[in-house]
Amino acid sequence: MTYYYISSALTPLEYGDTPDMTFHFLFEKYKENLSESDMKQLSVLRKKFDLMNIKRLLRHEEIDTRGNLDQKELEEALSTEGYFDQYVFDFLNRFDEDADKILNFPELLNRFFIDEEEKASGFLKNLLGNQRKWRLILTGYRTKKQKGDISKQLSFEDPFDPITAMILSQKDSPHFEAPEGSEELSEMLMTTKESPMQQFRRFAEFRFRKIKEIVEDRLFSLDYLIAYAVQVIILEDLHALSKEEGEKVLNTIVKDTS
């Protein structure tokens, strides 16, 4: 399958654009044109929203509607222990108090990235690996800047993972140094360190551009369609943010990674 029809119908995106189609509308178009196996890969993008919506429920917050499940379906899945992988329920059942589930939620998110990356292939596998790596680097940088405990922030990570080990080795260093190959991200963090909102925008731009570079020569492919959906997510999040929310989002990334 060349995916020619659906790919050619998508307006090329640039960072800062307002997408012609919302994430919801885009997925409806995908459903009309893609196979069940294709949609299974794409559903991983929405599964992360489902996972984060568990945390939103625990906090009594409104859920993000870009998940696979609406609020009623999510509540039913949690009460019947359906839909999610067993590790999600093993995690939730370990704690009696919602506050403890929220505090330790980064452990669950970390497991999601590891499990989904192992099951994925092609661009999706690359995407999940990069997302995890970028979040680790951002966590290391922000923790060091705030004079926090890197070991505590990364306590749920595999200490033998090369990137994790490299970041942990800097726990007593006065400055943060990004892993080799991540110099561009490190420079971006340093040049925007006094402006959390600018830092968030630059980080979003960095992710948007890297994703675009990976699939720029795969126009009529499932990889391109997955990348396009991720770019729509980035742009929707960018336009939804107010100035005051920049630092909050960055701190949330740190907390949800550690």
Radius of gyration: 18 Å
Beta-strand portion reads under 5%
Number of helices: 14
N-to-C span: 40 Å
> How many domains make up the coordinates?
1
Give the SSE order as H and E letters: HHHHHHHHHHHHHH
Secondary-structure content class:
mainly alpha
Average residue-wise pLDDT:
87
Kindly state the number of beta strands.
Answer: 0
Q: What would the principal axes of the Cα set say about the shape? A: globular
Query: Any low-confidence stretches, pLDDT <50, length ≥5?
Result: none
**Main sheet summary:** none
Helix content: 55-70%
Describe this structure in words.
The protein is an all-alpha fold. It has one domain. The chain is built from 14 helices and no strands. The longest helix has 24 residues. The model has no long low-confidence stretch (mean pLDDT 87).
